[in-house]
Design brief:
Rossmann fold; 7-stranded mixed β-sheet; 5-stranded mixed β-sheet; about 35% helix
Length: about 325
Amino acid sequence: MIMTLNQAVRSALNNEMEKNDKIVLLGEDIGKTGGVFRTTEGLYDKFGSKRVIDTPLNESGIVGTAIGMALYGMKPVVEIQFMDFVFPAFDQIVSDLSKFRYRTGGAYSCPIVIRMPYGGGIKGASYHSQSGETHFVHTAGLKVIIPSTPYDTKGLLISAMRDDDPVIFFEPKRFYRSIKEDIPEESFTIPIGKANIIEEGNDVTVISYGATMQTVKEATSIIKEEGINPEVIDLRSLSPLDSNTILQSAKKTGRVVIVHEAPKTLGMSAEISALISENCLEYLEAPIQRVTGLDTPFPYTLEKQYLPDVNRIYKKIKLTVEYT
């Protein structure tokens, strides 16, 4: 069945709610309204108000309630309306949610999925456009997933709902309706922690995830016309990170470009660069290059200048390949 990304989210939620009556959804306006991006549309009518719960505008209360439900055997799936709104719940996530398994010596887990639309591209300005994935990757005890396609979204979200530990699930909101794929209507899973090699090549490794994967694909299609064969990797999971796939590719090509729309300083590109430098330095034939968002608040009128675009990515790939 052909689905958009937000339909893939809805399909995953519907499939798992049919199979597991312990799954409950919590979030602002997710019930009758179907969520601000309509990802839960129709689920309230099908499953009722006890399983699709409209909450007050209180993120710390939403996550705190979900933690209590999870500890008593439920499987809450929380929707934070925009990633930018999660910070009032940050203490609940970092101080409590992430640490239950550790604090109890493995006796208790807290299996919650927190879904969040993230990133720019919709003219959302400073408070509706941020990419805060590294806040959560930096916190032990959390799994962090960012899919880039409808197919991966459904498979990874189902895996997240079946996981015994808390999962932070970012959704690239600017592609909720603009990308379509043929996706099975039935349930299927994609392993958490396994990157996807979208395209195999020998000349340069290009690594990305989430919303910028689409821009990377455009840039690499141009570079291929010049006889350059990039290896393109979609990380899909940031924690756990598929280090083996990254390192094997870096050793093969000797040249690496990393792309994400989050700010450059302490972004995922910094961690991946360090990982490659520590393990593959003797294989590298050029400095690792990064194409990222800026170390500024997310702008409104300069959104296109902030986000990595095809030209910026193309230039860095070209620079890396031609370095001698």
